[in-house]
Amino acid sequence: MAVNYEDQTILFDFVVKQGNGVKGLIDSGMSCVPQPFVQPPSERIATLNGQTCEAAQPIDLSQLDGPHHKEVAKQIVEAAETLGFFQVVNHGVSIELLELLKTSAHEFFAQPPEKKAIYLKEVSPSKLVKYGTSFVPEKEKAIEWKDYVSMLYTNDHEALQHWPQPCREVALAFLKSSMQMVKRVVEVLMEDVGVRLEEERMNSLMGTKMVNMNYYPTCPSPELTIGVGRHSDMGMLTVLLQDGIGGLYVRLDNGDWAEIPPLNGALVINVGDTLQILSNGKYKSAEHRVRTTNIGSRVSVPIFTAPNPSEKIGPLPQVVKRDGVARYKELLFQDYMNNFFSQPHDGKKSLDFARAD
């Protein structure tokens, strides 16, 4: 299909509203980045400088609850306090499943546009599935170079009934085989601040679970675009499978950006805003972004865990007592979520909504 790359309205309709996505642009024969995707210079990701961060060294979760428990727990806590990102191995998810996930993500996005467009927010047959491009493209200064499908979990039956056929079984298996690990990591982090969450409270704080599949098509000019802009995640913990191409960057304390390098068989875990709020700022939700590439199309598969919308979040009383001050106010997670999704990506600005007056 011939696309008028110069007419921004036609281009936006083709990519976003009709559901052709960024992949549709590439498949149409586009050879240079159209203007709506060109980022302001301040948001572009500089040419790779080879800087990688300490998350390059994975944490071995099989050592938890064994003779080396204290040492491993300390590694998890220190990573959550400083970088907000760490990689884990021996996490309980099979290597075979991780490979199947990457394959099924490519299969979903390789489908004809009309097969994916049925899941566009306005027409999706299920409230559990949403397909789209970028974050909030209607409000962004420049559109992010990413297509995605998100799958909200309610129960196994509904997932197998409503999630897209090419990826429903492997996405569900990934979610179910990861949750025990996620809860154990949260327990370790809570133990370090002297808190033991009752099972009901733990389940409420991670009652919203979503699996996304992200697709970053090969980009002819990666230096002009971004896959995902600067942001932190809104939930408790995010678990991420990335493929071997790389491009995930985290912001360091000094303001520099460093890559979280892909490690075969590892999963990436990062702290979300909710956990920063609960811990009164002890644990840091990591500001991160994604670079595009011209060497191949990249896929990643995150699991987002977040509170039930009706759950109240705020600094835990035990932590406030220790700190002597509450740095965040108590608020309904639904309100936090509504604010988060109403704005384009802008670093950790979403946390300002929860700061104590």
TrEMBL record:
Keywords: Dioxygenase, Iron, Metal-binding, Oxidoreductase. Residues 201-307 form the Fe2OG dioxygenase domain. It comes from the Eukaryota. GO terms for molecular function: dioxygenase activity; metal ion binding. InterPro entries: DIOX_N, IPNS-like_FE2OG_OXY, IPNS-like_sf, Oxoglu/Fe-dep_dioxygenase_dom. Its cofactor is L-ascorbate. Signal peptide: none annotated. GO terms for biological process: coumarin biosynthetic process. It holds the Pfam family DIOX_N. PANTHER family: OXIDOREDUCTASE, 2OG-FE II OXYGENASE FAMILY PROTEIN, SCOPOLETIN 8-HYDROXYLASE. Belongs to the iron/ascorbate-dependent oxidoreductase family. This is Fe2OG dioxygenase domain-containing protein. It comes from Brassica campestris (Field mustard).
